[in-house]
Amino acid sequence: MWLLDVEAILDREDDIRGFNAEIEVLKWHNDKSAGYAILSRRWGTEVTYDEITGLTAMKSRRRDSVRQRDGYQKIIKSCEQAKQDGYKWMWFDTCCIDKRSSAELSEAINSMYRWYRNAQKCYVYLNDVVESIFPTEQDFRRFGKSNGWPEWFSRGWTLQELIAPTEVVFFNHRWVSIGTKRDLTSSLEVITRIPEMVLKYEQVLRSTSRCPSVAHIMSWAAHRKTSRVEDRAYSLMGLLGVNMPMLYEEGSKAFQRLQLEIIRASSDYSIFAWNLKGQFLEHGSVLADDPSCFRGCTDVEKVAPSGFTKELEQYMRQDGLFLSKDASKLGSSQSNVDFPQLSRWDVTNVGIQVWLPIIPHRGSSYLKAILPCRDRYGNLIAIDFEFRGLNFARSLHPVAIRNMWPQFKSLYLDCSQDAEENHRLCLHDGQASYGFTRCGTFPCEVVGNTITLSTHGNNLVVLLYANDDARSRFAIGLGYHLGRVWARIVCDEYPAKQEVLSPWEDFAQQAYDILWDAPIEESQHSNFHSTPVAIKDTHLPQSIWHARVVYDDSGSGYTNVMVDIQQCSGCCAEPRECTYRSVGTFSRRCVRS
Fold first, then answer.
1. Over 80: is that where the pLDDT of 501 sits?
2. Strands, E, within 222-375: which ranges?
3. pLDDT tens track for 438-489
4. Which of 187, 273, 513, 584 is at 20 to 30 A from 390, Cα to Cα?
5. Is the pLDDT of residue 373 over 60?
6. Can you tell me the distance from the alpha carbon of 162 to that of 156, in angstroms, rounded to the nearest whole number?
7. Which ranges constitute the DSSP H helices of 38-184?
């Protein structure tokens, strides 16, 4: 790995014109033997390999421009801190990688987790923290775009940069130390949902008995963002103990490749336990599209093969199956469930071959497969599948359990990736009246009146509307499921009673969580219609208004969505007739009861 010579960098900075250009500021070292510090931060205007090595030879105007960048100042400040701490070498992920070489870049990304783990100390620079203490409470007013915490905690690459190093020191924007990972473990667990044991002892991730499940590890990245979609996968390789070549421009296929590499190296069935409620996604593959699909998998645990039989019996009891005295009805294979079939997976041209207990649905192509992993309630997790000729595809249609014992069977699971499709929403909310205005969106920012939802990954967006004078507000969730737009309204029940109204970002997060966890079946029955137009309206508590959403599938790849506020008597228990004004291409008169 290339390491910066701390003393050479600081000497050059002290006398940039008189510095001997032949002195090397970057030198090649072995990460296992060199004692070095490392920096983790949010990127800004950074300095490249060529610029850090060729700074002295530059013309003065260009050299001064480089030195004024915030990225260069981070290098100088980090080197000053490293010198103070007694380190001779520093590593940065920008200027210490020659990115002109694709081979060097691929090697660096595959080695990066190890480099952070072997660092003597990691400096974390929180550029948006101005106080001299570490923020231990969620604050949407200061960190509204990053879930109420410093932005560093919302980025994909910083996940491994927090976990891998043993010694981590946090600095505020003035480079004042505000705490260490060792002292802040409890607060970091709240912010990141990473167990304290992992934060304290990174080696747990390499333990066969104590390592969290794959689904659990993936959940840590569910809310995080990266500038490039491929990095959502690449940034997880070290945490999950796999390596693979970098193929930038492959898009979401990178995450599919990551999962296949995990499957080749592991027998952790929790990798299939994502998005258990089937929220907002169209799917057939057993592989997830994106880390956000593992949202809510924080408590998913692996079940050892030796204990799977007993837990399988308990699972069937809970579902009302009469237990016969003849245990052989579990199948002869269950008496010896701890043999290679359960732990061996094969990736083939027709899918991933697994061996699992299944319960078929009588007279149909559907079945339920029971995985050797538990949910947050301690129950075994079951996945519904549909047979599609050569293999079984993941199904969004729940399969009712029959009164029969599960039988172990070899299955080929679909792992193909469908082409990504986008669906546009044309938002019409300019006529929202009675003082209500759109004040923000979550989790992504929406510019203008167009929202794009994808069939891959997390495609739920929440719009926030508020009348600050009346202290009334509500959220509208829009999603895309089974080829149709999905909408639901969530009201803020108690804003009028709050002495200080909480930030809208706080309410947005709450509404997002409510909508994500809401059973999809309820949403289907209440919001899907055979006609192109669908309506959802809700009375706003402690007010004389009701909020209304009308959405109409244009049939041309986009849906018109109208948001409106109307005055009512204050009681919405009775049926009422609503006449909807024209929005885009539609104008219809609908009756809600």
1. no
2. 301-302, 346-348, 351-360, 366-374
3. 888 887 777 778 888 766 555 788 999 988 888 888 999 888 765 677 788 8
4. 273
5. yes
6. 11
7. 49-53, 60-67, 70-85, 102-118, 158-163
- Which is higher by pLDDT, 290 or 523? 290
3-class DSSP string for 340-403: HHHHCCEEECCEEEEEEEEEECCCCCEEEEEEEEECCCCCEEEEEEEECCCCEEECCCCCCCCC
Q: What is the pLDDT of residues 99-127, one digit of tens each?
A: 888 899 999 999 999 999 999 999 999 99
Under the banding of pLDDT at 50, 70 and 90, the label for residue 279 is low
User: For residues 535 and 528, what is the distance between their CA atoms, to the nearest angstrom?
Assistant: 9
Cα 570 to Cα 319: distance, rounded to the nearest angstrom:
44
Residue 160's pLDDT is 97
pLDDT at 90 over 50: yes
Q: Which residues touch 382 (CB under 8 Å, ≥6 apart)?
A: 315, 368, 369, 370, 371
Q: Nearest 10 degrees: CA dihedral of 137, 142, 147, 151?
A: -100
Beta strand segments in 99-216, E: 121-125, 168-171, 177-180
Tokens 């732990």 — which residue? 343
Phi, psi of 499 (to 5 degrees): -65, -45
SS3 label, residue 532:
coil
Name residue, tokens 């840590």: 220
d(CA 335, CA 405): 13
Between β-strands 558-567 and 422-428, what pairing exists: parallel, antiparallel or unpaired? parallel
Question: With b meaning 16 or more CB within 10 Å and e meaning fewer, what string describes 105-144?
Answer: ebbbbbbbbebbbbbbbbbbbbbbbeeeebbeebebebbb
Rg of the chain, C-alpha, whole Å: 27
- The candidate with the shortest Cα–Cα distance to 173, out of 190, 146, 154, 151, is 151
Q: Look at residues 551, 581, 544 and name the one whose alpha carbon lies nearest to residue 566.
A: 544
CA separation (Å) from 179 to 169, 183, 192, 234, 567? 6, 7, 16, 29, 52
178: left (phi over 0), alpha (psi -120 to 50) or beta: alpha
Task: Give the type of residue at 398.
Answer: P
List the structure tokens of 347: 């990736």
The DSSP H or E segment spanning 439 is strand 437-442
**pLDDT confidence of residue 584:** 37
Distance CA 130, CA 132 (A): 7
